[in-house]
Amino acid sequence: MLIPLSILQHPNGYLRELNVTYDPDLPISHAFGRVSVQRGWKPGSKRWRKAWNACMNSEYNRLIGSRVTSLATWQELCAKVGLRGSFESINKCKKALARVHVNIVDLLECWNSDSTPTIFKSQKALAVYTQGSQKYFKRDVAKQDNVLKVLLRKLI
User: PANTHER family given for it (predicted)?
Assistant: First the structure.
């Protein structure tokens, strides 16, 4: 049986440009990791960071970015990080999310699945995890976005 080519195209725009075959069981960070090894990008290098940021920005825009003015998107975000209750406004969602410590990349990787990202008890615990996993989301990009700004934590 032949699988249509469109199914194999990666939904992440950046990875699609690099002709990465889509594996729905593979988290975005792992798909990126494969590409970086294939292309010889040394983790942490300037080229690797630039590509990582482009990949994560593309994933955010695909999943959430185009829908930030929708209350339903904010409510979905609250539910995804385990917040319970009725959030009747975006402001109520923002206030609730301001107390949540979650890795943004992990959140993106869980967005279209039944899994939930790890919620950390403190900013320090989030920082230790993020530094160990190297799952960063570029700060200057996050500061410009209404959703990401709420989730952004100073890690260093």
Answer: C3H1-TYPE DOMAIN-CONTAINING PROTEIN (PTHR38846:SF1)
